[in-house]
Design brief:
mainly beta; 4 helices
Length: 476
């Protein structure tokens, strides 16, 4: 009994001595954050992200990297996403280089949070053995195969498959224009210069937040537009993000984020890591001029211009009756057509579309003769539109007070928006025709031209078709 007591006393004394020596310098307050160099085997293979993507594209279906007894296969990249603000969840986005990247990929991991281990700019290596590559909603991802689907890498396998390199690089955003978006830029950290949120998102009595409106489910989608052109893109913010309730910035400037696709793979979208990635320091917004008089109750009996296109020759460009039919870019213009069936025209209508054109860019204008708003009262505009899967292509109704009437002067003239005119949307049933409403122009002044402007491309996501009919401009 005495021996036991003496032994316990000695152990207690030793423990006190050891504890005292451990805490003497307060080292417990500073964890060891150093990262050692990764020790690769002599036969291990390291491939680039674009090779991983290329392997998948060549196969056209899910690709699995099998375990080999002789070597391991890795892919390296730099972390460009962070879940610190809650806008990313259980995923890492990697790109191949810290500056001027050429390929990026998404890694699905059943771990939250991830930024404490894989911070922004950290170089990592993904051990591909036992992992698979597939495409989900238009985005190429790495994960674990689960039947016919791609699941997340489990928490227990995280350390085996995702290795930290000592390097933490400064990520330099790749400066691009919205009009340059393509699949090659997906999963890259990009910078958009001279952009702003659409005036309907930030001006007026009810400016929007990033993602806390009543209509926001899962994500808030806000329209971001270029001040250097007519292109726009959706900024997507998770309703679980820490900054969802902040108001969108009103000014214009630059924005850094990751280019990806929406949940349904219908359009490109940009996701930011935090509001600190937005630098809107220019108070001078670039909003277009507008005619926004609302909708009129009645239409006057004095017709100033009308066309139902019945006098046009089908499959030829619209001409005559004072129209200016101008192809700014590409090979497609507004042409007369007729069609029956589900997507029937209304006799002969005007149509424009870039489907199967092969053109990288399609911009087509159809402009009315000049209308004198000062010499007439109660001027209204009416028309009808339909679409054949308009996709990402757009049709706008514009006006100009300073166009000189020549084709050469179209692109240099100032064009504003006829805001209240309804133009068919991609979500509208393609077999129906939609009225513009009785668009009131009476708050405008001077001599104006009305233009129907189409923008699309040969890209399958932006190659839709619009149809136009029963254009009428009337006055009291």
């Amino acid at each position: 009994m005495m021996k036991t007591i003496k032994l316990n006393s000695i152990l207690l004394l030793l423990s006190l001595v050891i504890f005292s020596s451990c805490v003497q310098d307060d080292d417990f307050d500073t964890p060891n954050v150093s990262v050692d160099n990764i020790q690769f085997g002599a036969d291990d293979i390291i491939i680039d992200i674009d090779a991983v993507i290329g392997n998948y594209v060549q196969q056209g279906e899910l690709v699995t990297y099998e375990d080999s007894p002789n070597f391991d296969t890795y892919v390296s990249g730099y972390v460009i996403s962070t879940d610190e603000a809650g806008n990313f969840f259980e995923e890492l986005v990697l790109q191949d280089k810290a500056e001027n990247p050429t390929a990026g990929i998404n890694v699905q991991i059943d771990v939250n949070p991830l930024f404490t281990l894989y911070e922004f700019g950290r170089k990592v290596y993904i051990k591909l053995d036992g992992l698979s590559v597939s495409e989900n909603n238009g985005v190429i991802q790495i994960g674990k195969v689960d039947g016919n689907n791609l699941a997340k890498i489990s928490a227990t396998e995280r350390a085996e498959h995702i290795l930290r390199d000592p390097e933490v690089a400064t990520i330099v955003p790749l400066e691009v224009n919205i009009s340059d978006f393509s699949n090659d830029l997906e999963n890259l950290y990009i910078r958009l210069n001279d952009v702003q949120f659409n005036r309907d998102e930030v001006l007026g009595n009810n400016p929007k937040t990033f993602a806390s409106e009543d209509t926001d489910q899962f994500d808030g989608e806000r329209l971001l537009e270029s001040c250097a052109g007519s292109s726009s893109v959706i900024l997507s913010t998770s309703t679980f993000s820490d900054f969802k309730s902040l108001n969108l910035p009103v000014n214009r400037g630059s924005l850094d984020g990751i280019l990806t696709r929406d949940f349904f793979d219908e359009f490109y979208t940009v996701v930011i890591n935090s509001p600190e990635d937005i630098n809107f320091d220019n108070e001078m917004r670039c909003d277009p001029i507008e005619i926004a008089c609302g909708l009129a109750d009645t239409t006057g009996s004095n017709n100033l211009f009308a066309d139902d296109f019945e006098g046009q020759s089908t499959n030829t460009l619209i001409s005559g009756n004072g129209w200016t039919n101008f192809i700014e870019s590409g090979s497609e213009g507004w042409e007369a057509y007729t069609q029956s069936g589900t997507n029937a025209s209304q006799g002969i209508s005007a149509r424009v579309g870039s489907f199967n054109s092969g053109d990288a860019s399609t911009v087509a204008w159809l402009i009315t003769p000049q209308i004198d708003l000062d010499a007439n009262t109660g001027v209204t505009l009416n028309f009808e539109t339909s679409n054949s899967f308009s996709d990402g292509s757009t049709m706008e109704v514009l006006f100009s007070n300073d166009w000189d009437g020549t084709e050469a002067g179209i692109t240099s003239a100032t064009w504003g928006i006829v805001s209240d005119a309804y133009v068919t949307q991609d979500s509208d049933f393609f077999g129906d025709w939609f009225e513009s409403g009785n668009v009131d122009l009476s708050c405008g002044s001077g001599q104006i031209y009305i233009a129907f402007k189409y923008v699309g491309s040969g890209d399958a996501d932006f190659d839709g078709t619009y149809e136009l009919d029963f254009v009428s401009i009337d006055a009291q």
